[in-house]
Amino acid sequence: MKKLIECVPNFSEGRDMAIINQITAQIETVDGVKLLDVDPGAATNRTVVTMVGTPDEVIEAAFRAIKKASELIDMSKHSGAHPRFGATDVCPLVPVANITMEETVEYARKLAKRIGEELGISIYCYENAALFEKRRNLATVRAGEYEALKEKLQKPEWKPDFGPATFNARSGATAVGARDFLVAYNINLNTTSTRRANAIAFDVRERGRPLREGNPVTGKVVLDEKGNKVWVPGTLKTVKAIGWFIEEFGVAQISMNLTNISVTSVHEAFDEVCRKADARGVRVTGSELVGLIPLKAMLDAGRYFLKKQQRSVGVSEEELIKIAVESLGLNQLYKFEPGKKIIEYFLREKDEQMLVKMNLREFANETASESPAPGGGSISAYTGALGISLATMVANLSSHKRGWDDRWDEFSNWAAKGQAIKDELIWLVDEDTRAFNMIMDAFGLPKGNDAEKAARAEAIQAATKHAIQIPFRVMQRSYESMEVIKAMAEIGNPNSVSDAGVGALCARTAVIGAHLNVKINSKDLTDKAFLDDILKQAVEIEEKTVALESEILQIVESKL
Q: pLDDT tens digits for 182-235?
């Protein structure tokens, strides 16, 4: 449920590991940020660093690394094969999970402003973060590179977006941007021919291939009135691709960069390559992901392939990933390990979701122990999760019921809605315990001088408000689950109508139990306006839930 962004700063040093290590060490000083990759290049004299984490922490880590780079890298002495104009040449932010591009742009500009003001470095914002349309393209912003920067900064049209318009000979300038997530993805073929792999790559990549007269392979390349090649675009937008032969595995591949997976997804690219390969007498045998991928991309792939089979997409996260892995052939060259390849899984702490990783006996024993957590809030959330799970089961059984084949999509949609509610309630099981621990931590803060007392009091109030919001969210989501439960009682598989009834009982218990926790956690909150509003809403939710439960049970009884 955390917001996650990726940051990929490029530093103009690729040969001196002592300098590179000092820069990346700054990233590792920030909690909530994971250093994923450090890729130095001697020829380019450039290092590409990849980190991911929560937004505020990522931009803090990026700032510290950029500051260290400005201290260690002297651009007046730099040379390399890659275009560059600063010690930190570019620093793009990339939305990964639970965050929009618009929000990511705001973080990019916040970082850009801080670098410019505190480090005295000229900053240009590019791609989605650009303040001016003509600065959207990085190549335009960086034109002339470091050597032309002094003269460029003197031109009014190239006044930096942030920072001074004076030449910083040591650090140069930095481009800070926001872009979409790039997935490096290779598709395996049952051929050793690089030429055939290239032909398929040209069929699908956005740039396509040069237009030729007559024979599309050997014909003369067609030029426009300016003498430039005329290109025939490929079928996939925002995709770069080339064919090559991998000696290690003895197969040819289509090597692809999917530069915007919201435009062309991994599964869409895979299926299109399958079609184009088949047309050329070549078969796709599998694929591989290079680096990490967002969880959403894998879940979307799982749903896509289930829909092609006319099967319900309302299955667990684990099942969706399994379907995606098998359908894309991601196990062909090496075993696909979700914990190492999916960003959100890679970032999980070892003890995260400790309660929901327990088996039923362990969970019951932990609840019955002398520890105050898990308590009623966690139990309410789990009870709600069980209730919507029953309704989701009815939806899935209904989608596969013999004779109801034409209704699979209808029930699939209900099951998907149920899975989404279930997943959040499962998360809230542990979040309720984390909220309790936050209160305990706040009470443990020092209270010596006036400043410490004020900070402690503020932390207690913030933790208390959070501890109220968590069970209130359990109430909201459990009440929302009643819509699915009622639908399954009315139109679902009649052999499972009792399961819908039990689901309604669980949802009602979850709402009333969570309401008790909202009230007990409210005792010490001083924000009365917030408290009055949330308590009023909680009463309304409980009343509506009880009435709806009665209505559902009447439907169930009428069918028994």
A: 898 999 999 999 999 999 999 999 999 888 888 877 788 888 888 888 889 999
Residue 92, phi-psi category: left (phi > 0), alpha (psi -120 to 50), beta (remainder): beta
Catalytic residue among 16, 56, 82, 423, which?
82
- Active-site annotation holder among 180, 432, 499, 515: 432
Residue 82 bears catalytic tag: yes
Which is the CATH superfamily of the domain at 183-347? Formiminotransferase, C-terminal subdomain (3.30.70.670)
Query: Is residue 347's pLDDT more than 90?
Result: no
Q: Contact, 174 vs 89, CB < 8 A?
A: yes
Rounded Cα–Cα distance for residues 95 and 54 (Å): 10
Closest CA to 100 of 195, 168, 18, 180: 180
Read off the pLDDT of each residue in 50-71 and give the average, rounded to a whole number. Answer: 97
Q: Are 138 and 212 in contact (CB under 8 A)?
A: no
pLDDT tens figures, 473-513: 999 999 999 999 999 999 999 999 999 999 999 999 999 99
Which residue is it, tokens 């990490």? 292
Give the tokens for residue 474: 């359990």
Residues 520-551 have pLDDT tens digits of 999 889 999 999 999 999 999 999 999 999 99
Bridge partner residues of 51 (DSSP): 7, 35
- Alpha carbon distances (Å) from 393 to 358, 470, 556: 22, 26, 16
Per-residue buried b or exposed e for 486-506, using 16+ beta carbons within 10 Å of the residue's own CB: bbbbeebbeebbbbbbebbbb
Strands 122-127 and 239-246: unpaired
432 as an active site residue: the answer is: yes
Which structure tokens are listed for 512?
């009333």
Say if residue 353's pLDDT is above 70. no
Across 60-82, average pLDDT:
96
Query: What's the chain's length in residues?
Result: 560
Residues with Cβ within 8 Å of 81's Cβ and at least 6 positions away in sequence, in order, are 43, 44, 45
Closest CA to 300 of 270, 256, 274, 272: 270
- Percent of the chain having pLDDT more than 90? 81
Give start and end residues of each alpha helix (H) in 138-235. Answer: 138-141, 149-152, 194-204
Element (H, E) at 210: strand 209-210
Domain boundaries, the chain: 4-178, 183-347, 360-559
Q: How far apart are CA 523 and CA 527, in angstroms?
A: 11
- Candidate CATH numbers 3.30.990.10, 3.10.450.50, 3.40.50.300, 3.40.50.720; the one for domain 4-178: 3.30.990.10
Instruction: Decide yes or no: CATH 1.10.443.10 for domain 360-559.
Output: no
Q: What is the average per-residue pLDDT within 407-426?
A: 96
User: With contact defined as beta carbons under 8 Å apart, do 41 and 138 qualify?
Assistant: no
